[in-house]
């Protein structure tokens, strides 16, 4: 080895093209600003792909310190661009690089000759024998029929669909074999053979559950949509995982199948879960000029007895009233997707329309009909003391059978942008305190969300609600059970319960029917800030059905949204369009979540 002071043979001089300026410590490094152009490509999608894979184009805001580095960067792009062109069916493409150092800024040009678009010619399946043989999709369904462009992603999608079809028919161990793709450059064509190894038809075997701490194992087994002996399908596996997530008990769930079926064709199944925390505390604050400051405190336990039983206690209060509720829900009661419901409620209200004190309880069942679709029925009792403004106290003991159908296809609970929600309620009442009172109350509400622009996000939201109450006159129905319109969750711009008939002291009378219509344009300006423009219309009517000869109160205004990690915080200012002399000039609403 030569020491630092030894003389060795002189080093060969570097090639002049590789010489770079010597860097001086502390001196600002030069930068070669440049622009990139692709010539020879007319297809916008293909041009976009080339821009995406080109490091030269991607790093244009990070210019190199020398022309040598810039040329090297461009030359390194050639194989990337050729690979991208091949992925789109251009198997004979050529890419040349030209750098113009005299331009200002320096011009980097990629001369692209895509060549002809290659197409599928002979396409076949190589399927290993199995009993029973899976039914396979056609070449047309897979997009790989003769004459179609020989795009690599199409081939990958076809293989995925082929594998999914086999697994959906009980071949859970199906695998892909070795694909054979032969390119014929003389004919601008590709011959393709997709290989599938279906394996045997397999069934669910013994189920093993791992990762449990406080949740009982039979609660997990009840959630699973399959039983030992049933044919395994990918749909059942996905449904089982989703059912475990929907229980609210687990932060993760993995279903693993064994690799070797037994003599009866059964595979053991391992379900591995990770429990989430089962207790939570919720706090909410709101402000409305017609109701004042309000807030909610809730406590929830989602695994009370070890099988996903949910107990929720909530206290809500404002200047116009408060209520304390306790609700219990036992999932998978008697059978999967059926829950036992029970709740109690103690409420005090002091509004412009009435003052009431009520206590009630109910119990019933809820059934999941389809994803997002439920129906529930209960037996309920409610004892109340109600004083309508200017009237004497009245006492009621109402026995009822409330039924609720709900359908939710929206994409988010607090900030939906697509889909819709439907709620249909019906509740017949009979007074058991000897008041000889019976009546029926029904309501239908539908909301819909339509995202019209992605960036900036523009969402159109609409809501309609109609209600009817029949079997008794308005004065016979307890004042706290009549329909009312007006306020932050109804017709913004009008005071709470004030969009309807008023007495001589401007107190609301309520009604036997209801109509509410709302529309919003929601514009999301940034990740955290959005604005809203809204129009609401509605009223409570004295007749059993909405009477359009009466005035429909209309409110409108702007809103501001702050998108926090827990949901949008809304601030709306509502102005009454057709105000009466007794109505305020505006109302302010602040709360968590969208208006609807």
Map the helices and strands.
Layout (H helix, E strand, L loop, with lengths): L33 E6 L4 H10 L1 H4 L8 H21 L6 E7 L5 E8 L5 E9 L11 H4 L9 H17 L6 E2 L3 E5 L4 E9 L5 E8 L6 H7 L10 H13 L3 E8 L8 E10 L3 E10 L3 E10 L8 E9 L2 E10 L7 E13 L3 E17 L2 E16 L4 E8 L2 E6 L10 E13 L6 E16 L3 E14 L42 E12 L4 E13 L11 E12 L2 E10 L10 E6 L4
Parallel strand pairs: 1-3, 4-7, 8-10
Antiparallel strand pairs: 2-3, 5-7, 6-7, 9-10, 11-12, 11-27, 12-13, 13-14, 14-15, 15-16, 16-17, 17-18, 17-19, 18-20, 19-20, 20-21, 21-22, 22-23, 23-24, 24-25, 25-26, 26-27
Helix pairs in contact: 1-3
Any overview of this molecule?
The chain is mainly β and 596 residues long. It has helices spanning 44-53, 55-58, 67-87, 139-142, 152-168, 217-223, 234-246; strands spanning 34-39, 94-100, 106-113, 119-127, 175-176, 180-184, 189-197, 203-210, 250-257, 266-275, 279-288, 292-301, 310-318, 321-330, 338-350, 354-370, 373-388, 393-400, 403-408, 419-431, 438-453, 457-470, 513-524, 529-541, 553-564, 567-576, 587-592. It folds into four domains: 31-113, Ubiquitin-like (UB roll), CATH 3.10.20; 119-197, Ubiquitin-like (UB roll) (Roll), CATH 3.10.20.310; 203-275, Roll (Ubiquitin-like (UB roll)); 360-592, Porin (Beta Barrel), CATH 2.40.160. Helix 1 crosses helix 3.
């Amino acid at each position: 080895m030569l020491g630092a002071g030894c003389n060795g043979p002189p080093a060969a001089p570097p090639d002049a093209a590789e010489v770079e300026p010597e860097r001086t410590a502390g001196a600002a490094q030069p930068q070669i600003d440049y622009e990139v152009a692709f010539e020879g490509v007319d297809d916008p999608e293909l041009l976009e792909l080339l821009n995406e894979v080109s490091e030269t184009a991607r790093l244009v805001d990070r210019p190199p310190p020398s022309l040598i580095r810039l040329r090297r960067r461009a030359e390194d792009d050639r194989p990337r661009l050729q690979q991208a062109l091949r992925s789109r069916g251009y198997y004979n493409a050529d890419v040349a690089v030209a750098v113009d150092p005299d331009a200002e800024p320096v011009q980097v040009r990629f001369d692209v000759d895509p060549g002809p678009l290659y197409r599928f010619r002979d396409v076949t399946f190589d399927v290993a024998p199995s009993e029973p043989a899976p039914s396979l999709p056609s070449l047309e369904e897979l997009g790989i029929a003769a004459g179609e462009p020989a795009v690599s992603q199409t081939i990958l999608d076809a293989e995925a669909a082929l594998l999914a079809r086999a697994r959906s028919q009980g071949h859970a161990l199906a695998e892909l074999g070795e694909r054979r793709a032969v390119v014929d450059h003389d004919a601008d064509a590709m011959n393709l053979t997709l290989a599938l190894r279906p394996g045997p038809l397999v069934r669910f075997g013994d189920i093993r559950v791992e990762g449990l701490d406080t949740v009982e194992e039979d609660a997990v087994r009840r959630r699973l949509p399959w039983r030992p002996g049933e044919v395994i399908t990918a749909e059942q596996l996905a449904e089982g995982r989703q059912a475990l997530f929907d229980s609210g008990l687990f932060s993760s769930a993995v279903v693993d199948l064994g690799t070797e079926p037994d003599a009866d064709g059964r595979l053991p199944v391992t379900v591995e879960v990770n429990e989430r925390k089962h207790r939570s505390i919720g706090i909410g604050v709101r402000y409305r000029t017609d109701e004042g400051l309000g807030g909610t405190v809730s406590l929830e336990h989602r695994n009370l007895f070890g099988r996903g039983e949910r107990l929720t206690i909530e206290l809500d209060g404002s200047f116009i009233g408060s209520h304390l509720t306790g609700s219990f829900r036992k999932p998978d009661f008697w059978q999967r997707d059926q829950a036992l419901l029970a709740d109690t409620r103690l409420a005090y209200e002091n509004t412009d329309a009435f003052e009431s004190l009520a206590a009630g309880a109910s119990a019933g069942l809820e059934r999941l009909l389809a994803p997002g679709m439920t129906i529930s029925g209960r037996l309920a009792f409610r004892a109340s003391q109600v004083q309508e403004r200017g009237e004497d106290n009245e006492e009621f003991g109402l026995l009822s059978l409330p039924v609720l159908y709900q359908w939710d296809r929206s994409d988010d609970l607090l900030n939906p942008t697509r889909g819709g929600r439907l709620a249909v309620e019906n509740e017949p009442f009979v007074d058991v305190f000897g008041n000889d009172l019976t009546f029926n109350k029904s309501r239908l509400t539908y909301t819909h969300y339509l995202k019209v622009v992605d960036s900036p996000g523009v969402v159109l939201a609409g809501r309609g609600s109609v209600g009817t109450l029949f079997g008794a006159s308005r004065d016979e129905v307890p004042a706290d059970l009549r329909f009312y319109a007006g306020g932050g969750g109804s017709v913004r711009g009008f005071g709470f319960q004030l969009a309807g008939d008023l007495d001589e002291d401007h107190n609301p009378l309520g009604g036997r029917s209801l109509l509410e219509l709302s529309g919003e344009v929601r514009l999301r300006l940034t990740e955290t800030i959005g604005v809203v423009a809204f129009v609401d219309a509605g009223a409570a009517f004295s007749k059993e059905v909405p009477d359009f000869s009466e005035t429909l109160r209309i409110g409108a205004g702007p809103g501001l949204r702050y998108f926090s990690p827990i949901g949008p915080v809304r601030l709306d200012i509502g102005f009454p369009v057709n105000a009466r002399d007794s109505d305020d000039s505006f109302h302010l609403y602040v709360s968590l979540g969208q208006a609807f």
